[in-house]
Amino acid sequence: MAHDVIIAGGGFGGLYAARRLERRLPRHSARIVLVSDVNFLLYTPLLPGAASGSLEPRHVVVPLREELEWTEIMLARVESADPAMRDLRVRTIDGREETLRYDQLIVALGSVSRVMPVPGLAEHAIGFKTLADAIALRNRALLNLEIAESLPDDESRREYLTFVFVGAGYAGLEGIAELQDFVTDVIERYPRCRLAGTRFILVEARDRVMSEIPASLAEFASRELRGRGMEIRTSTMLETMDARSATLSTGERIPARTVCWTAGVKPPPVVGRLGLSLDESGRIEVDSTMRVKGRENVWAIGDAAAVPDPAMRRRQASPPTAQHAIRQGRRVGENVAAALRGRRTKRFRYRTLGVFVDMGQHQAVAHMLGVPLRGFPAWFAARTYHLTMMPGMARRVRLALDWSVGLFFGRASAELGQLGHPAALEHETHEEPSER
Ligand SMILES: Cc1cc2nc3c(=O)[nH]c(=O)nc-3n(C[C@H](O)[C@H](O)[C@H](O)COP(=O)(O)OP(=O)(O)OC[C@H]3O[C@@H](n4cnc5c(N)ncnc54)[C@H](O)[C@@H]3O)c2cc1C
Fold it and tell me: Buried b / exposed e across 205-232, counting CB within 10 Å, b at 16+?
């Protein structure tokens, strides 16, 4: 009898788990179903490129059906689970509720932005986690330029030309650097805005940017960004915000129409409805083989799981990175295949290969296999790394072409917020001919 293996989530962890299972299990021996709310993997390290228009949005995603051979893809939202009954409850995109039975379940549901209780934040800030966030940010920047250009004086332009990013990890640092690069590129076409000038402010609660990389590299990154005119406020928090301003813990009030929130992630709320044991940060508790605590046939990986990191002292949880999710996906694929055959499962072992922070303009910082790199060599290494990690030759070529075109021809400045939102068709009104 074929085994039912369900993978919840089709991001880095889920896709790589499915690929490994397809390789390890004979086709007739299992039915693999991957449930995801979107039909692609978002290659997040390239999201800043999509937000800044240097990469075509379709080129930073990997359609699941193109990468998987015989896994069934189910476009649905996971809503809850009952591990005692081996049930996963989902709602399909057309609104049907379905209950899926499993022999083995892999949870790879990723994370969502960790929104703090800052007054005004949820209503007015933009996140930087999804493709929709990235495109919204690009469109917002362009709309701001259009509005600012039409205003009568520099004072009223100011709030439209100020961009605040809160959180100086990967996403914040790369996001603000790429956005500034983009605005600098297109502002030539907005003469009043160019004269008024822009402001880019990066706010970080810790005492330095990028706690993930060595202090010397973080210092280089800060110097590089300051050299481009960016303001960096460390040991500072966002205290409150509204549609037109952000107020910091220092008391400074910044007139700004755009605040991007990049201050950390947490597991999505659905993780709390799966009947699984969670740690204090809300991640699923697993052992070093990624089997969920107290559940023989449930596994969890990626950002949603607290997988003990063999590289960390005292076995802290692995950091929420794509590098870890990919390796956990492959290992959990092996382990689930082994469990189905009654063989021994193995521990997750992985030492981070490196960290790259691409700041655009041919500048980056990197820490590769213990070697610190900065400037152009780091930038080149970062781009080469992403080219090799992006699945599929055609996608790699598209990325390389996008980057090359951007180098020679600059970026497009059309604001395409209407994409995907067509106007409703209107009934033809039949007007009576007026009497003469
Ligand atoms: C802007 C940005 C830049 C980053 N840069 C880097 C980098 O340079 N290097 C690096 O290593 N990491 C980077 N990361 C982190 C990396 O993206 C994550 O660690 C990685 O995506 C985690 O993989 P995952 O499989 O756990 O989750 P994901 O890849 O997020 O996949 C989760 C999947 O589950 C789906 N899903 C969620 N909820 C449901 C539901 N209820 N029902 C069905 N499907 C659901 C989601 O749509 C998604 O497809 C970056 C993250 C961001 C936001």
Answer: beebbbebbeeebbbbbbebbeebebeb
Backbone angles phi, psi at 428, to 5 degrees: -75, 125
Nearest CA to ligand 1 atom 21: 322
Pocket lining: 254 vs ligand 1, CB cutoff 6 Å: no
CA pair distance 335, 344, nearest whole angstrom: 8
pLDDT tens per residue across span 197-250: 999 999 999 999 988 777 888 888 899 899 999 999 999 999 999 999 999 999
Which among 33, 44, 126 is the best mutation to test ligand 1's pocket, defined by most ligand atoms within 8 Å of the CB? Answer: 44
Angle between helices 376-389 and 393-409 (to 10 degrees): 150
- 0.70 exceeded by pTM: yes
Best mutation site among 170, 178, 351, 358 for ligand 1 pocket (most ligand atoms within 8 Å of CB)? 170
Neighbours of 138 (CB within 10 A): 24
